[in-house]
Design goal:
The chain is mainly β. Helix content is about 0%, strand content about 50%.
């Protein structure tokens, strides 16, 4: 069983930055690619970013225009999502997930088998 706990969310003004953390336990962290997704009220969950098991491959949603960056620390079993130039449209619950297969940096939700509870990010205008 893999347990994921997100932290770092909060209220920030437009143009500001936040760094989210995803602490993983319960399994060999280095066997799992990790992804970040977000879900805004009334909208479907959408892919944000993913990182491969060793951090050598990353995948970011094109629509984010390079404002977000994913990284991982395999010693601390933690994945980070650095968010900059935040906009009100970034307001959502952000969730991290561990993949099932350990290949690449998947974008599809179906590749992920374990999910955290999420952390709220609210961007005010």
């Amino acid at each position: 069983q893999v347990l994921l706990v997100e932290s770092g969310g909060g209220l920030v003004q437009a143009g500001g930055s936040l760094r989210l953390s995803c602490k993983v336990s319960g399994d060999d962290f280095s066997k799992h690619a990790i992804g970040w997704f977000r879900q805004a009220p009334g909208k479907e969950r959408e892919f944000v970013a993913a990182i491969s098991t060793n951090g050598g491959l990353t995948n970011h949603a094109i629509a984010l225009n390079d404002r977000f960056a994913i990284s991982r620390d395999n010693i601390e079993s933690t994945v980070y999502l650095q968010m900059a130039s935040l906009k009100p449209g970034d307001t959502a619950v952000y969730l991290c997930a561990a993949d099932k297969y350990g290949y690449g940096a998947p974008q599809s939700e179906s590749d992920y088998g374990y999910w955290g509870q999420g952390t709220q990010v609210t961007v005010s205008s």
